[in-house]
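Sharing a chain and its predicted structure for anyone who wants a worked example. Both blocks are below, sequence first, tokens second.
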Amino acid sequence: MERIQEALAKARAQRQQGNATQKKEVARPHNANPNTDAWEHLAPFKLNRAALKRNRVVAADSGPEAAPYDLMRTKIIHQCQINDWRRIAIVSPDAGAGKTTTLGNLAFSFERQRDMRILCIDLDLRRPALHTLLAQKPDHSMAEVLEGHVPFSQHGLRLGSRVALGLNNEPARNPSELLLSRVARDSLAAIEQEYAPDLTFFDISPLNGSDDNIAFLQNVDCAVIIAAAESTTMTRIDQAERQVAELTNVMGIALNKCRYIGDADEYQYY
């Protein structure tokens, strides 16, 4: 892991020498007073522990298995607070790295975090998977919400009292065009205005899969890149970081599916 960090730091430093362009801030509304009634009227999440365990969603309860996601949650909160970031994309260089699994676990981790409200929205509109991962069967899709056909109040699910989920029941037609449209931007802004989340997470398509991510990354404050150990190459990680950095801020890179741990990772769980 140290070698990966060193190589990425070297490549990043070389890019920054030739690129002094500053990222523009994303214009998005924020209401410091969340509408409690709106949250309470969202349909409750139907918990299926057997399916969650099967799908590697291990953060539904606190404990050793949830600890890595709790640590990731805390680091995200810290970075968002010091940078005033509120929209975070979860993305991967290629399919199969585990970005959706990461977001599913983060949703449960944040549900245990007091004094914060979180939106988790599936915008991987070509191959939506968050609903399958969480064993949910929504009646509508986020495409219908973004197009204004279905209000989020009739579509969103409430996980506990602090996390709202926007899922899909099928792939969308023309996802790139939809994500680039003004109506989609206005719909997301309206959702954030009404529900006033502290943070909003977006699961978006893999970087090599389509131009959907290019269409949407410019609308977020930052992105977390999920790479798969022994699968995602250093070249692909560096390419992904460069591609994301052209559109928004890179919060960090998380190495998923790692079978080997160091002494520091074996520290006793309290």
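Comments welcome. The chain has one domain: 2-10+38-259.
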